[in-house]
Amino acid sequence: MHRYLTDPFQEIEEVEGGLFKLNIGPQHPISGQGRFIVLTDGELVYDIEVDIGYSHRGIEKILEYKNYIQAVVPLERMVMLDTSNILMGFVRAVEELYGVEPPPRANYIRTIINELNRISSHLYALGLYAESAGWNPAVFIWTTVDREPILDILEMITGARWSHSFFIPGGVRADLPNGIKERILDTMDFLERRLEVYEDAWIYNETFRMRTEGVGVLPRDKAIEWGAAGPSLRASGVKYDTRLNEPYSAYPELDFKIVTHTAGDAYARGWVRFEEIKVSIDLVRQAIENIPKGPVKKALPPRPVKQEALARAETARGEINFYIYTEGRDKPYRVKISPASFRNFFVIEQMPKIQEIKLADVPPLIYSFDPWFLDADR
Amino acid sequence: MRLKRMDPKRLSELLKDRFGERITITSLEERRLFFKVDYEIAHDVARFLKENGFDMAITMGGTDFPKRNVIEIFYGVWSSTHDFVAFMKFDISRENPRFRTFIDIWPAVHNYERETWELLGVDVEGHPRLKLLLLPDDWSFEEEGYPLRKDFDSSRYRSPWGDET
Q1: Residue pair A269/A235 in contact by the 8 Å Cβ criterion
Q2: B8-108: CATH topology
Q3: Contact predicate A319/A312, CB 8 Å
Q4: Is B131 in Cβ contact with A224 (below 8 Å)?
Q5: ipTM of this complex prediction, to 2 decimal places
C-alpha cells in the first residue's frame, strides 16, 4: 500500500479495481490526532491502515535525561484523561527497582485517584462512542458534564483537574484534605443515579443495540494473538485485569470482580466499559471507608537494588507496562513503555481480515476500542 | 491440548532442560522470568514458549549498549494459561544490527518491531511492513540518526524555551 497521497489536500485516492483509499483524519472529527486510511469500494471496507505518530514526543528518550521524580511530569502527558493510571505503571516499576513498598495509606489514596480517573476516562470514552455511532449528541454532553464533579474532587485532592503529578515513587505527594470523604460519597451517589439514566436512554436502548451489535466481532483466540488490551480484551471473554491478576496498590484488599462479556463485538466493548464504571464506583466507596491512618510517603534509598523491572498497571484503555533498565544512577538507562492503545490500533488494522465491515460501521468500530493516539505515540 | 499450569520456577527448569547452557536465567520473581539466550536459538525458544502457552506478546523493544558494542533485543510474553510474564533477551551486534522477525510466532509484535527498526536502526528481516511509524515522514536516518541509540544528539531537539534537563 502507498503511504502518501500525491496531493495532500486530496482526501480520496483512486486505486485499481474500482477501489479507493479514503483518508479519515488527521483533521476529521472522528479521528483524533492520527489518520485511518480505509480501502473501500464505497460500501465495504477491505483494509484499514492506522497512521500513528502525529504526536510522537519521544517520551522514552526524554526519560533517559530525567531522574525518577522529574520523569513524572512528561510521562503524564501520554493520556490527559487518565493521567494517574499511566503514572501508576512507572511508579510501580521504580518502586520495584528500589525495593520500596509504599505505606498502606498511600496505596489507598492511589486506588481512589486511579478509580476516579478511570470513571472519568470511561465516561468520556462512552460519550465519544455514542457520538461515533450517530447517537444523539446529548449523551456526549451528559457524560462530559457528569465528569465535572469527579474533576472537582481530583482538584481538591491534588490541586489540578488533570495531570495531577500526584504520585511519586514511594507514595503520594500529600494526604487527603478534610471533608473529602463526604464529598466523594455524595458524588458516587450522584453518578449512580446518572448511570441509571444512561441505561434507559442509551446503553440498553434497542436502537443503539441494533447499531452496534455484531459490528467488529473479535474472537477470543484472535484477541489474545493480536494482543488486544483492557476492556477490548475482556469483551472477548478473556478474564484478565491487571488489578486482580497482578495485584497492586490497595486492590488485593478490596472486593471486586472482573467484568467480561463473551460477544466480542462493538456493543460488548461499550457495555464492559459501562459496567466497569459501576465496579469503580464500588471500589472508591470501599477504599474511602477502609482507608488506614499513617504516613503517605517514603523516601527512596540512594541506590536501586535491582537492575531491571517490568511493571504492569491497568489504565482505562487497558494494560500499560514499563520495562526499566538501570545502571545504578539516579536516571534510568532505558525505559520501554508499552501502552494499551498501541496494541489496540494493531487489532483495529486486523479487523477487516476476519469480518466484513461496512464503511458506515468504521467509526463505531474504532471508538468501541477507545483508542487514544497520544497514548500510542508516546 | 490442555496445558498444566506452572510457575516461573518450573518454566526456568523446562528451559534449562531443553536448551542447557545457551540460556541464562537473569532474574526469577513471583510473576516474572527474565532470561537471556543466544540469538541463534532465540526463535526456537520463542516457539517453545508459544507451545507452552505463552500466547500474548505484551512488549518488545531494544536497548543500545555502546560500551559492550551490542544492541539487546527483548520480548515480553504473557501467558493466558499460566498468568505470568516470560521476558526473553538476546544480543545482536551493533555494527550490523539485524535479526529475523518474530511475527510468525507472535503476530502482536508487528508494530513493536517496526518501532524498533526506526528508533534503534535494527534491520528486522522478513518483516512485511518496515516503514516509518512514529517518526516524521521527512526523517532522514543518514542526517539525524536513530533516536534511541545512545550516540543520538538530542540537543538538536531541545525546547526553544530553554534547557529543561
Answers
A1: yes
A2: Beta Polymerase; domain 2 (3.30.460)
A3: yes
A4: no
A5: 0.89
Q: What is the extent of the structural domain holding A40?
A: 12-51
The answer to whether residue A3 sits within a structural domain is no
In this model, does residue A209 exceed pLDDT 80?
yes
Q: How far is B15 from chain A (nearest CA, A)?
A: 20
Q: Which of A228, A333, A326 is nearest to B78 (CA)?
A: A228
Inter-residue contact B37 to B22 (CB < 8 Å): yes
pLDDT (tens digit per residue) in A153-188: 999 998 888 888 888 888 898 888 888 889 999 999
Whether A348 has a pLDDT exceeding 50, the answer reads: yes
Cell digits for B52? 507452552
Give residue-wise pLDDT tens across range B25-73. Answer: 888 888 889 999 988 888 999 999 888 888 888 999 999 999 989 999 9
A339 upstream amide cis, omega within 30 of 0: no
Q: Least CB-CB distance to B135: which of A53, A226, A245?
A: A53
User: Which of B56, B111, B137 comes nearest A224 by C-beta?
Assistant: B56
Number of structural domains found in chain A: 2
d(CA A281, CA A258): 14
Torsions phi, psi for A75 (to 5 deg): -65, -40
Calculate how close chain B gets to A110, using CA atoms only, in Å. Answer: 22
Cell of A249: 496498590
Name residues 327-356 of chain A within 8 A of B (Cβ). 333-334, 336, 338, 342-343, 345-346
B83 touches chain A (CB under 8 A): yes
- Tell me the per-residue pLDDT of A272-320, one tens digit each, with 9 for 90 and over: 999 999 999 999 999 999 989 889 888 888 888 888 899 999 998 888 9
Residue A147 sits in the same domain as residue A192: yes
pLDDT of residue A5: 44
